């Protein structure tokens, strides 16, 4: 069997980390098994769906490298197919028209709740042998309801939750087409999964209540349902379900804030799946290790501090030449154009950073003006140190512009003035980079153009 998984988001709001994890796992399972990953856009909620939300879904998945093999398929473009299946089901007696009005349905539910019964449709319009149906009201367009099996159970072995069994008597006859003939969500999903030959449905556990209804529709259509894996909810840092309403950010905002796609994949993978105690791993390792047997059963909680730590580890491990274009993009957003030095700058400063934004801030000091704070100048650029700064400037004007040559100039200056390295290095850092804390001074200065260093030292 060729594994075929899908991600089927509804474009009714921007995609956040809780949503994208439901794309990561089916993508990883397809990739790890040599299967296919399908992208399907469930856009039947016309009032709330938007093209902007679709764009963020596709852009976010592209940034994270969650490439799809087929799609995107749009449900609104498949309406003719759904209506054909509906017509076949009507002919086969699997569905029936129901003329119960909304007011009648509300009244029924109120009576049931008052009697402490579960509110559910009571089958008034369900045709049965020997049953007399009410007269059809004039001018009322019916909904179509699915004839749910009566008696017995619907069951499946969930790859996360284990064996689940639901009594069919708990399920009423589901509306699968509205009065205007448009099909409803649970029906469309089943037709899509059949047509797209989906073998494994890996999705959030907010869909668990839909699953028994969908399984019964699969069986009515003569098809075996896929394997299901229902993922626990991702909670935000306050312990609430992650959502736009609760402050979740669009996936693409993490890109803009300087997170690396492989770090995001690493972090998201651990929000509900594990491989022993491994915390940091690359994409190839993840795909080699991933399976459905190690999905977690309990809700995972998002922790931005942990995400930053994971990102910092990937930043440190990343090849400088590969990192440079990403940092260059961050610099361009700040109106700063980088040059061929950027890869070496990244190599020197990346151990101090947890995002590419932080790295770009360091790098900008090599391409843009720096403005040391009044506090830094007052603390480090004293009258006592200015003669040593003048000596260093003179030596730097003549030395070989290499790390070794600059190191010699610094040592000769400290020896000539009888001062220790930090007494000279910190003022130089403040003048050249705008801060007293940087990596090794000779390594920093070598990455500058000589004239830039001399001009900044004259600003003492």
UniProtKB/TrEMBL annotation:
Gene name per UniProt: gltX
HAMAP family: Glu_tRNA_synth_type1
Motif segment ('KMSKS' region): 241-245
Subcellular locations according to the entry: Cytoplasm
Start and end residues of each Glutamyl/glutaminyl-tRNA synthetase class Ib catalytic domain: 3-309
Subunit annotation: Monomer.
Pfam families: Anticodon_2 (PF19269), tRNA-synt_1c (PF00749)
Keyword line: Aminoacyl-tRNA synthetase, ATP-binding, Cytoplasm, Ligase, Nucleotide-binding, Protein biosynthesis
Protein function: Catalyzes the attachment of glutamate to tRNA(Glu) in a two-step reaction: glutamate is first activated by ATP to form Glu-AMP and then transferred to the acceptor end of tRNA(Glu).
Keyword tRNA processing attributed: no
Motif ('HIGH' region): 9-19
Similarity field: Belongs to the class-I aminoacyl-tRNA synthetase family. Glutamate--tRNA ligase type 1 subfamily.
InterPro entries associated with the record: aa-tRNA-synth_I_cd-bd, aa-tRNA-synth_I_codon-bd_sub2, aa-tRNA-synth_I_CS, aa_tRNA-synth_I_cd-bd_sf, Glu-tRNA-ligase_bac/mito, Glu/Gln-tRNA-synth, Glu/Gln-tRNA-synth_Ib_cat-dom, GluQ/Sye
Binding site for ATP: 244
Record field: catalytic activity: tRNA(Glu) + L-glutamate + ATP = L-glutamyl-tRNA(Glu) + AMP + diphosphate
An annotated Gene Ontology molecular function: glutamate-tRNA ligase activity
E.C. number(s) listed in UniProt: 6.1.1.17
Aminoacyl-tRNA synthetase class I anticodon-binding domain segment(s): 337-459
Name the UniProt record assigns to this protein: Glutamate--tRNA ligase
Main location: cytoplasm
